[in-house]
Amino acid sequence: MLAVLLSWSPPVHAVSNGLARTPPMGWNSWNQVRCYDLTEQVVRDAADALASTGMREAGYHYVVIDDCWQAPTRAADGSLRPDPVRFPGGIAALAEYVHDRGLLFGIYAVPGSRTCAMANDGYPATGIGSLGHERQDAGTFEDWDVDYLKYDWCNADTVDGLQPQAAFAKMRDELARLDRPIMYAISEYGLSRPWTWARPVANLWRTTFDLQPEWTSVRGVIDQQAAVAESSGLPGGWNDPDMLQIGNGTLTDAENRAHFSMWAILNAPLFAGTDPAKLGAGDLETLTNTEAIAVDRDFAVAQGRRLAVSGAGEVWGKPLSDGGFALVLLNTGNTLTSISASIPGIWAVRDLWLHKDVGTADGTVSATVAPHSATMLRLTDR
Ligand code: GLA
Q: Model's pTM, two decimal places?
């Protein structure tokens, strides 16, 4: 298979709140505990484990509580409050605990009247959406020393008659009024093609529905990123193919490495969603592959793109800021596949999973790639 490297032109717009100069990294509760198992202890344990496993040093800085942290109703003054049984210490104390470990704290809210867990998990709450409370909720988050907000659509169009661009911009404007910088992650699953409009609105925007912890889903989400890459992220605003599922479900070590390689070449946000205290050696090694993370953080002119497809073999690549290239040779299929990419020039080649220099390429790189696996390479000009 031949991959022709196209010419790359930098995207035009830029977001302006100064955050997310590299794709954000951290831990989010949802893929680990979903809804009813979310407690302040789970969050404290995750913060402790990020610090003790080396994940914090690898860049996992944001500890984000997803849906189901809220009490079933607002307080008498209209403010949001945490579930008193699962968060007895309150959110401000939890944020402080996280900050004390050298980490940042994030929280979840929605623009409409209904959170996704109210719709999908039967979460027994009323009135906890931010609709009509945007300024008050932004203020509450500031009072709690929140550093990151995930703002999740959850059918706010059909339920509340909202329009995504306007609704997401409204909370952006409320956050902009605060003295505290709060990273802003929006999530509407790619329905209104946010990659075409969200750069001035948010620091990251979901491009797909929820990633599930099995290969078919990982492969499907990867496939969807090919079209989106044309409207690549830029420092400050990133396409988000959803949080990592490494450590969950049926994903094997090889599938996890392929998943991580792809998120890295796409400059995707990297949010672990498994218990960081219970990571197997393989999962921890994958999540803390600093050479792959360096590719995720390197933005030269564009995120990774799919350069060639032949059967189950795919070549994804992007230029790096040192004048080199990152390549992922991805085998999405069930049989061993030989994949090669044509790269004009002479390159020193490093394998980012073997952590080894593997020779020199003169115009072509090739690898035999196992099923559901990826070879990730860094090419440096010689
Ligand atoms: C949606 C989002 C998920 C998670 C849940 C919470 O499904 O896509 O990431 O936030 O809602 O209910």
A: 0.96
